[in-house]
Specification:
By secondary structure, the protein is α+β, with helices and mostly antiparallel strands. It has 27 helices and 19 strands. A six-stranded antiparallel sheet has the order 3-4-1-10-9-11, covered by helices on one side. It has a six-stranded antiparallel sheet with strand order 5-6-7-8-12-13. A five-stranded parallel sheet has the order 16-15-14-17-18. Helix 15 runs antiparallel to helix 17. The longest helix has 23 residues. The protein is globular and about 70 Å long.
Length: 691
């Protein structure tokens, strides 16, 4: 894990802390473990973790004005200096408009500004401390700093309504640690904090501005090319040297066994449009897109393309064939990684502690097996679906803008998939109801559904679309929560509805932003859980400029069937790539559900042991016997929401890893100065026993 952490103190806090820095309980100087100081008192900032030298840049105008950029940023030092001068007047948006994925921190006198990103993949957290405010790009260091306990209300909302920002609000799993929403910045002035938005939000007051589809797609192409080029322009890094030969193993096998990536740049190549687009763009751009000469394959300029072949669950043969056809490009070096039962979801229940919980914890071993064969800098297509595809609720946005004719093709596609002539009327009616429903009423409906335990939803593609045509809906794990936990979330939603001020947003745009934020948060968890030493994962689709370009796509374009593959095909054609294999971009008929179900069956006994005395029951969120029965039903092949089980299992795993950790993120404090110092005290004895 890598993060930055610092604080801003009041004048009284500075006097209490002293010029040498904050002090612990016994008078020791307080600073993060394994950190490098970027600037000192009175408002210090540290970079913590295995940052590369080129990933940490500090540009100073004078003693009181400086900017720090951590991550991959395509701006030159002169551009950073100009951005610093502009930020002195209070402007923020330009700090987030450079290519790449990074966190910018600006210090102007005693005013500190920390910019989060649009997707939520690089979040910012804050908490009151020492009369001022401490901030970080990870929540756990702040939780250690204040000895925070668990926020059970947040954990309940994470299971009951994970896609509803009003339920999660700005809370984190740690009590007292808050999150800056995506598209916002944290502004600190002598310890006082303010959350400032830097991105305009679409309003109901006027119709969406008309956009030229061709220009919008060209903007997506330019943003993606610049995002890839920013990575290619960064210095190349060679992982730690191979310590020596192992009998019977070649260099690649030794690297994979020891968890070392191949030097250079690579990409996923699943056969889908997102990963294929990034691989072809990275391989085709000028520069040095492949491995370093004299390392790895010795191919010099070729980009390493990694394809995962699941031997335990079939159904992706067509995608593998397309990946092989793409890999015939002489600029690519193709590697196929095979996985059997040991790479199924739930196969490995041990792993590192992540900053927050996420459903990808149950699939981390599966991704780690693929990434171990990857490069030191590895492109992934994560986020393409969320930024390019149309959320079903966008149909209501089209009705609000009086663009009914653009509903014909998506509704016709649903009718063909369902085979019913009633589909158009049902979908149009649901979209019309959503367009006429205020945001507050949508939250009240969800609160009532949770209170009355109404979780039944129609199945199939049409059913999923109809269920998504709402402001908010229960999460897949909500059906297994206790009545007390559901009532707590329901009351919270009612309170949010009473003071809601976000009704000026369009429902489709609102739901799409929420889905993107959840996916980005889970990708952040995946990066930490499947981390390979000396490797960096790059998700250009989540860069600020790419997200902005994708949001500018006309809704009438993105709601059409096959829009994502069509847009990416046009992007590649504009970059000079035209020889795509037949069927490229076709949706896969196989899904991760088959792998998840097989993994649940194979790991049935370890999962039953995991929920013999679950910490979730001690927290009063579930009953142990209910979860054990759901796991048995899923292993037997019954119809069970698999996503909900992934949420429950991953949260239980995360709680166990958090409570079993030793040490803290800070020096100068006794061992007790860490998050959840007293563990989880059973909130309800009957539930804790699983009776």
């Amino acid at each position: 894990m890598r993060w930055l952490v610092g604080w801003s103190s009041t004048a009284a806090g500075i006097a209490a802390i002293g010029s040498a820095g904050a002090t612990g309980y016994d008078g020791e100087t307080l600073h993060p473990v394994g950190s490098q100081l970027l600037w000192g008192d009175p408002d210090p900032l540290w970079a913590v973790g295995d940052w590369r030298p080129d990933e940490v840049r500090v540009v100073k105008a004078d003693a009181d004005n400086r900017i720090a950029v951590l991550g991959i940023c395509g701006a030159s030092d002169e551009e950073l200096r100009r951005g610093l001068f502009t930020a002195r007047g209070g402007a923020l948006r330009h700090l987030t408009a450079w290519p790449g994925s990074y966190t910018a921190v600006v210090k102007v006198g005693r005013r500190i500004t920390v910019c989060g990103d649009l997707a939520g993949a690089r979040p910012v957290f804050h908490t009151p401390w020492a009369g001022g405010t401490a901030y970080a790009t990870a929540a756990l260091p702040l939780a250690d700093l204040i000895e925070a306990n668990l926020d059970f209300g947040h954990l309940a909302a994470l299971l009951a309504a994970p896609d509803v920002p009003a339920a999660l609000r700005d809370t984190t799993p740690y009590e007292g640690v808050r999150r800056v929403p995506p598209g916002h910045a944290l502004v600190l002035r002598a310890g006082a904090r303010e959350i400032a938005g830097y991105e305009p939000v679409a309003s109901l007051a006027v119709a969406a501005a008309p956009a030229d589809p061709d220009r919008a797609v060209d903007a997506v192409r330019d943003a993606l090319v610049e995002a890839v080029r920013a990575r290619l322009a960064a210095p190349r890094h060679v992982p730690d040297l191979d310590p020596g030969p192992v009998p019977g193993m070649g260099p690649a096998e030794r690297r994979a066994r020891r968890g070392m990536p191949v030097p250079g740049i690579g990409a996923d190549l699943s056969g889908g449009p997102a990963s294929g687009t990034l691989a072809l763009l990275a391989a085709g751009l000028p520069g040095r897109p492949g491995t370093l000469l004299g390392h790895g394959t010795g191919a010099g300029e070729r980009l390493l393309a990694v394809t995962f072949n699941d031997l335990a669950v079939g159904g992706r043969e067509a995608e593998l064939e397309r990946a092989g056809a793409l890999a015939a490009n002489p600029r690519l070096h193709h590697v196929v990684v095979t996985g059997a039962e040991e790479t199924l979801p739930y196969a490995e229940l041990d792993g590192p502690l992540t900053d927050e919980p996420g459903p990808s914890l149950v699939t981390a071993a599966r991704h780690r097996a693929r990434l171990a064969a990857g490069s030191a800098d590895h492109f992934t297509g994560h986020g393409a679906r969320q930024v390019l595809d149309a959320h079903p609720a966008r149909l209501a946005d089209l009705l609000m803008d009086r663009k009914r004719r653009h509903l014909v093709r998506p509704v016709a596609a649903l009718a063909r998939a369902d085979g019913s002539v009633m589909v158009p009327a049902r979908v149009y009616g649901a979209a019309r109801r959503l367009a006429r429903t205020p945001y507050r009423a949508g939250l009240e409906v969800l609160a009532e559904r949770l209170m009355r335990r109404r979780f039944d939803e129609p199945g199939g593609a049409v059913g999923a679309s109809l269920a998504a045509l709402t402001w908010a809906r229960p999460g897949p794990a909500a059906r297994w929560l206790t009545g007390e936990a559901l009532a707590e979330v329901s009351v919270l939603l009612q309170a949010e509805a009473d003071r809601s001020a976000t009704g000026a947003q369009r429902p489709g745009d609102y739901r799409a932003r929420a889905a993107l934020a959840r996916h980005a948060a889970d990708l952040r968890v995946l990066e930490q859980a499947a981390e390979i030493r000396s490797q960096r994962l790059h998700a250009p689709f989540l860069d600020n400029q790419v997200v902005r370009a994708c949001r500018a796509l006309p809704e009438a374009l993105r709601v059409q069937p096959g829009a994502r593959s069509s847009i990416l095909r046009t992007v590649l054609e504009g970059a000079g790539v035209t020889d795509l294999p037949p069927g490229w971009g076709a949706p896969s008929h196989a899904s991760s559900a088959a792998a998840a179900r097989t993994g649940l069956r194979v790991a049935a006994d370890p999962l039953q042991d995991l929920f013999a005395t679950p910490l979730l029951a001690d927290a009063g969120l579930v009953e142990a016997r209910v979860i054990r029965k759901a796991l048995r039903d899923a292993a037997a092949g019954d119809t069970v929401p698999l996503d909900g089980l992934a949420d429950l299992v991953s949260l239980e795993l995360w709680l166990r890893r958090l409570l079993s950790r030793r040490g803290t993120c800070w020096t100068g404090t006794p061992a007790r100065a860490r998050a959840v110092p007293s563990g989880i005290q059973p909130r309800r004895g009957a539930l804790a026993s699983g009776a």
